[in-house]
Design brief:
Elements lengths: L1 H16 L2 H6 L1 E7 L2 E7 L13 H20 L5 E8 L7 E11 L3 E10 L4 E10 L4
Antiparallel strand pairs: 1-2, 2-4, 3-6, 4-5, 5-6
Amino acid sequence: MPDRDSFSWSLVESILAGSEAIVALGVTLEALDEDTVVLRMAMRPGLTRDGTIYHGGPVASLIDIAGDMVVAVRAGGGVPTISLRVDYLRPCTGPWLRATGRLRRYGRTISVSDVDVHDDQGRLCAVGRGTYSSLVG
């Protein structure tokens, strides 16, 4: 399994580095396995409402990216988003956010992932569910 893990890590890092939007958000890979991807997004200018609270748009993007990456690991490449739902539970604050994406269902054509976003103090601040094509593209 180390070869698969190494391939998956390289795949996700390649997808993250290959997207100007993801690079602009500063999203980095922290951990992964076959059914879970953990991403981190550091606070930076342009991602906040007032310098202390993350704007909802970047948080939603982080959820979408984490959901996509957990499906991409199984599919073998980046996959298109079909739909995305985000619930904001509290203001997202702190120097960084951590998104944990879990594969809920991997289907022949459609997959679903759930994502939790925690702040640097471990507080759950947003949750999301994404539906993605299971077909790379």
